[in-house]
Amino acid sequence: MNRFARLATRLLGVPQGLVWLTPVAQAAGAVPERWPTGADLDPAVVAHCRRVAQDGRARFFSPSGEVASACAFAGVPLVGGAGELLGVLAVTVGGRRQWTEDDVRDLTDLATACSAQMRMRARSGSVRRARVAAVDAARAAAGNASRAHVLLDRSELLLRASEDLADTSGLDDVRQRVGDLVGGDLKPALVDLVLVRRGMLHAVPSPVGGDFGGTGRVGTEGLALDSERPVARAVRENRMVVVDATADGEGDDDAGPSAATTAFDEGDRGTAVCLPLRGARGTLGALVLGWDVPCWIGVEERAVLTTLAAYTAQAVERALHLDERVTVARELQLAMLTDLPDVAGLELSALYRPAARDDMVGGDWYDAYPLPPAPGGDTAGGLALTVGDITGHDMHAASLMGQVRSMLRQADHDHPGEGPEQALGALERACRRLGLPASGTAVHAHLTPGAAGHWQLRWSNAGHPAPLVVTADGAVDSLVEHDVLLHHELEPGPRSCARRSLPPGSTLLLYTDGLVEEPGGDIEDNVGRLAHRLATAPPDVPLDALLRSLLDTVALGDARDDAVLFAVRVAAP
Q: In terms of Cα–Cα distance, which of 320, 314, 302, 298 is closest to 196?
């Protein structure tokens, strides 16, 4: 429950979230939780939660002018499997808050996932009791020890399913854990997850084997919901469909030669079971299990498979919700990356690589834009370059990155003719005045044309990895001058500015620590390897090809952090 409270505070940008439970839910052993853990709870918030519980509907409240000292409140009911009220998922923030449609939708979606989690936890208690009952039956039935052992195994399977599927974070994770569970107990030859997407059925690749083509031949283009394939019928009719290629037409839901041929393409499989995955808002798809040999699917086996499908459906529903949020966050992060400008005499190229884990978004960014002309000047002042890394790997870090990027641009335009250190200082002061909790590192530079094809580089480094410069003759120089990192709790002070001339044919490389940092490794060794690769690269290789080569040879394949590479080459005469 604490995870949902924490996620609610992040999504809605508020300081406090809680899962308030009804007395009935607490009597059953559930524990209310809030984020931050141990924070004081205003009695007015509890009163709001009780009102949501009494009315049975969501409440979004903001105090009026007469009670401006009160707190804004948003709460959505948590509902059990039989429609009973379990509690309230709520967030609070001091003072007024105008709740938007996005706030309502986000909190409602989270409440749906939270309700599913609570229902699954409740079922876990039933499974535990079933396990105890199975153990008692095994001890009492001395003459039927083998059957009791089977019952115990099935109860343990359901207990593990309730626990293993309760903390999955994505569809790949769900798929893998289902395969591990049934692969060791029910021992099917093949496992398949088929989900409804855009009105069609699409298969998620199986963790146990290849596509179980016999169960529906979903294919890459999907399968229509009105198909007569057993998997489509299971989803459409919301019921278990059992197919036995050797059946004589008695006993099974879909037995006999015609059904077997439709399902198995020449009947080359023994038995298949298509189980609908029932979600809070409809059928999500189907779980398909198949055996190479005929299997008897009796009443007890059906009960086990149905319960397993229920746990799987809850995990899939939660994974779909989280995957959607992560996809949106990644698209927003990529949308904030800059389209590089065309500058006469310069070649620019940038490369962004997200972390290997799909549930991460980060605060790495690069930027390039024309500088405003100096006061009294008739021409533009050159080009601004930035590479930075805001601390964190979540949506909050990505949103802070977008704000810092825009504020740094504005600082340059508010201080025309001044150096990059002035823009960084203005950014720090603005963050402190606005209470923006931004911390991290950055290199901010100004590049202006000089005589004889040279470009003059001025830069200010706020705790960031040192940029590298390679000249046309292959000599590499590390720009090690730097100041302290950016941090909202540090008092802004004067920042330094270093200078250097970039002759024709030279290349400037800026990067984030995700390129050279690895657990247990020496970052200096990796920087040295990066410098060597940069120095030995052919001078005429295009910058985009150079950056891809550096990423492939220096960075980790399973990186835990985002990485940015940004290169500027001065044209040769």
A: 320
Virtual torsion, Cα 220, 226, 228, 234, nearest 10 deg: 90
503-524 confidence digits (pLDDT tens): 999 999 999 988 888 777 788 8
H and E: helices and strands count for the chain: 13, 22
Alpha-carbon gap, residue 160 to 415, rounded angstroms = 62
Band (pLDDT 50/70/90 cuts) for residue 544 is: very high
pLDDT score of 267: 39
Query: Is 271:242 a contact under the CB 8 Å cutoff?
Result: yes
Neighbours of 30 (CB within 10 A): 18
Residues 358, 337: Cα–Cα separation, whole Å:
19
Confidence (pLDDT) at 328: 65
Q: Taking a C-beta distance cutoff of 8 angstroms, is the pair 382, 369 a contact?
A: no
CA nearest neighbour of 488 among 444, 559, 434: 434
Which stretches of 132-236 are assigned E, i.e. beta strand?
Answer: 190-197, 200-204, 223-224
What is the rounded distance in angstroms from the CA atom of residue 42 to the CA atom of residue 93?
11
Selection from 445, 425, 434, 370 nearest residue 403 by Cα: 434
pLDDT in the model for residue 222: 79
Backbone φ and ψ for 298, nearest 5 degrees, come out as -90, -170
Find the farthest-apart pair of alpha carbons in the chain and give their distance in angstroms, rounded: 101
State the Cα–Cα distance between residues 263 and 217, nearest whole angstrom: 8
Whether residue 297 is predicted with pLDDT greater than 50 in this model: the reply is: yes
Residue 209 has pLDDT above 80, yes or no: no
Contact indicator for 194, 285 with CB cutoff of 8 Å: yes
Q: What is the 3-state secondary structure (H, E, C) of 31-73?
A: CCEEECCCCCCCHHHHHHHHHHHHHCCCEEECCCHHHCCCEEE
Distances in Å between the Cα of 220 and the Cα atoms of 144, 204, 213, 345, 382 are 47, 10, 11, 48, 51
> Dihedral (C-alpha) 197, 202, 204, 206: value to the nearest 10 degrees?
160
- Phi then psi for 357, rounded to 5 degrees? -80, 130
How far, CA to CA in Å, does 287 sit from each of 101, 163, 176, 201, 225?
A: 34, 18, 13, 12, 15
Torsion angle (degrees, nearest 10) of CA 558, 562, 565, 566: 170
19 backbone dihedrals φ, ψ, rounded to 5°: -110, 105
pLDDT per position as a tens digit, 221-272: 678 888 888 999 999 999 999 887 655 443 445 443 233 223 333 334 578 8
With the C-alpha atoms ordered 109, 114, 117, 122, is the resulting torsion angle positive or negative?
A: negative
Closest Cα partner for 32 from 44, 15, 49, 48?
49
Q: How far is CA 430 from CA 91, 414, 436, 561, in A?
A: 28, 12, 8, 28
Whether 42 contacts 92, CB under 8 Å: yes
Tokens of 406: 């825009």
**Checking DSSP bridges between strand 282-291 and strand 271-279, what pairing results, if any?**
antiparallel
CB 84 within 8 A of CB 57: no
Distance, in Å, from the CA atom of 105 to the CA atom of 274, rounded to the nearest integer, reads 33
- The phi and psi torsions of 202 (rounded to 5 degrees) equal -130, 135
Structure tokens at 501: 């001339």
